[in-house]
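Hey, can you fold this one?
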Amino acid sequence: MIIGAFALVVGLTLYTLLDALRTHQDQMRTFPKWLWIIAVIFFPVVGPLLWLLLGRPRAVRAPKTQQGSGFTSSRRGTPPPATSSPDDDEEYLRWLKTKADRQRRSREKDAGTGPADGGTGGRSDGESDEPGGQDGSKN
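Sure. Predicted structure:
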């Protein structure tokens, strides 16, 4: 029981100390940052409780949107990241295309056709797979 209470006090103190350290000076309420840090360290039960009640920045209300509740994703007032689908990300699409090309070349190499076997393009009769033929002219 005593060990549990001690662990709770240490955990609460560490949480509030880190929270106070990460909070910007302009967002602190009641006392300056250095005083909150000293209070949390030297008064292990009272300091953290006072920080949570009097020093911690309040949740910032964002302008109401059509979708939501009006609160931002964190208490720091930062808006949630814009979500987008993977097919909107150009870098991801390039990576997918490169991966598909590597897999295709690997399959062609295993089958013995395609650019990996000397560049015949998969046709052994000298004809091109393209509708215009090898030289681009119509048949």
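Residues 120-128 have pLDDT under 50 and may be disordered. Let me know if you want another pass with a different chain boundary.
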